[in-house]
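Researcher: Next sequence.
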Amino acid sequence: MRTYLTVRDKKIGTIALLICLVALAHFIIPTDRHQLHVIHIILRKIFFLPPVIAAAWFGFRGGLYTTLAVSVLFSLHAFLDWPGNYMEQANQVGELVSFWAVGLIAGSLFERERTLLRDIAKAHEETLQGLVSALDLREQNTSRHSQRVRDYALRLAERLGLDEEDKRFIGFGALLHDVGKIGTPDAILLKPGSLTDEERKIICEHASAGHRIVSGVGYLQKAAEIVHAHHEHYDGSGYPRGLKGEEIPLGARLFAVIDVYDALTSRRPYHLPLSHEQALAEIREKSGSHFDRDVVHAFESIAPEIYQAIGEKYPDSG
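Model: Next structure:
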């Protein structure tokens, strides 16, 4: 299975690379010439950047750990490259104290900001859950479908190694995937029998309609792509744009598996719910055609008990 490099991994790698480059320059550049001393002073100032960047990306703990790493390397430089020069070492101890002041203060401020943003995001999600539950009741006589697929999708995203930001937008996309059906007439949406070609065409418009609705909300742009592409097939046979392979956003490829799984294992007017094993067998049959093989492999590697627990948490009603 493909290994996806997460945004978190890339950020950690960027910080580590910056620290290593600055430390390497410190140790390589000689200290016995006055002209080169200016470069060392500049490098000291650059050492303030990694703790601040880490604090912005990862909060207080990120600032703390990065400041610790910078302190260790900077202390080695002070005592190895300036042996016996106690005046210069004392000056660098002052720089070391400044690293901690900057790293901890920045970490505290960014952590506070992160907490506020999490609270706002939680409030937004609770509002969306209420609205989507109303849509679920209209179509399926259950307020639990969107909550189930959201939790299934988050579990699968975690198994694929996606970071918290990507998981959050996948959760929003799962909640809102069928919001475009708000404009579908009841006569078509709730029709018990087979749909005509014209009626099916109208139903298929819900992905594009949902994208138009969700993309109008600034912080839901990534979720809007999942809404737009959740009925695309890996072989290009899906709708509305006929995207193929990795043209389809990863979140949509992930959700496509989840949506079908929930449809197969939930109570519906037109079929009895399948067992986990039966649903998984049907999904495997369409691996490589409807679904991304890597996503299917990740999906089936999750213990059935996890899916069962989510289903019991959000049971069908009515």
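Model: DSSP finds 14 helices and no strands in the chain. The domain at 141-313 is CATH 1.10.3210.10 (Hypothetical protein af1432).
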